[in-house]
Please model this.
Amino acid sequence: MALVLLNPGSVTNFGAFDAYDALISTVLGGEVAQLVPYAVSGSDLHAKDVEDGYLEAPQLVRPIVTTTFTGASGEGPFYLTDDGSSQTVGNQSVGYGTLFGVVVGGTAGQVVSGGTVLGPSSATGSGKITLWKNPGLYGVTLNALNASLTPTAALTVGTPLFYDATGHLCLAAQKVGSGVSVARAVEFSTGDTLVTTPRNLTKLSLAGGTLNFKYLVIDWNPPATS
Model:
């Protein structure tokens, strides 16, 4: 998984929605997304329970998740995708779900050192992608961020975060068009403790040394619309 639930404003997600077929296999979790209208076609492999006729035939327009942005005014509302699969970040497995070899009763979203994922990601399991909208603290693993947003970037507490054309969180220099700020940076975290020691106290280089950062903690608080 690439979205880590740290302290969202509510433990209830916004909901699960169908996505473009190509997006199902590429979304990591932690990308910025929006809901857009999509006309059902015969070739679209949508989940059966979504063809409810939100607009009358022959259009059959329904909401669909997309992480594609143009940066035009009016985009949004904004959500965070939650994939729900297990991924390796650094030398650690980051994931949740049913894990063989992990003690039953562990906290959902915790970092684990081993185990086999028995359940599929939310997208594979239901054909849908789960979205979160609640303001609060979330972690986005490094592989789901814009390539320029790394522990060596010019990042301070409270730095505004935007989104690029593919929905990855980024700094102002990489944002798409007139995209708006959807979050603020808090810190890069190793995910191993509730408190991360500041780099200036670790005698390690500014590149992070052996801290092995796993995700960026963000204060998610997007505007309702741009």
Summary: The chain has one domain: 3-220.
